[in-house]
Amino acid sequence: MVNRAINPHSSTGKLIAMDSGERTHQNVVVMRHGDRIDNFEPLWTEKADRPWDPPLVLDGKVRAFCTGKKFISNLGFPIHRVYVSPFLRCLQTASEVIHALCAVDDCVTRMSSADGVSIDPSKLKASVEYGLCEMLNKRAIRAENAPKDGNFGFNISECEAVLPEGTVDSTVERVYKELPKWEESSEDARDRYKNIIKILADKHPNENLLLVTHGEGVGVSVTEHTPEHLKVYEVEYCAYSILQRSIKEKNPYGEFKLCSSQGHTGILTIPSSPTADEKVKEQEPQSTS
């Protein structure tokens, strides 16, 4: 049976809101980017200078902005810091979410940052992190679209320029100094996602984080933090998970647990079993990017 709502079926899965006083818990939201252009305009890659790095379509920007508005009303805690993959679709997604989170006016009638959204950039800080990048292999990036020399050509300054002015924290040292090498194995990529979530959280234990990444990264955030070892079947555009841990004990911090969220997060799961594993293997899409 496929479950649309993530539910750890235990008291530890209940989200604990954090007030403005001393924080006892840390929250990490792990989110997939919005709708990418090459999945709607198949000929886009034929004329693109960077076919491995598609932007969002307008609907993707709208979905991201509206997800940001949903965070305000549904999360029950503020986002203090955003980390984002260097891929353009993630940067544009993060930009839209940040516009929604930092808006100084009521955004009820606005559907994206293009509608003219004034923001207070002091509300949060954002940084680009290579460790949140796409799986660099042919399962995630079509071989004909990958750079022939394996150089994806990301420039951090250009990436940061996509994010809203005044929100970039360029003083934060990146965990991954460069991208993984092309033809990274899927197993290595999953380990990378698992590790980067914890490392980034440990860097900012008194802040709630939003990590904007790719489908596999969101999937790992679920499979690694559910006691029943759920298997992720699909991660929709702008789907997200919520992880929470206790920070009362500083050495070590508590273990992250997946929390139930209000509403549909866009993550489809099935229970882990030999039969279920086979089903996932047979029906797994070629790209989760």
TrEMBL record:
Region (Disordered): 269-289
Spans traversing the lipid bilayer: none
Biased composition (Basic and acidic residues): 276-289
Listed InterPro entries: His_Pase_superF_clade-1, His_PPase_superfam, Phosphatase_SH3-domain, PRIB5
Pfam families reported for this sequence: His_Phos_1
CDD domains: HP_PGM_like
Protein name: Phosphoglycerate mutase family protein
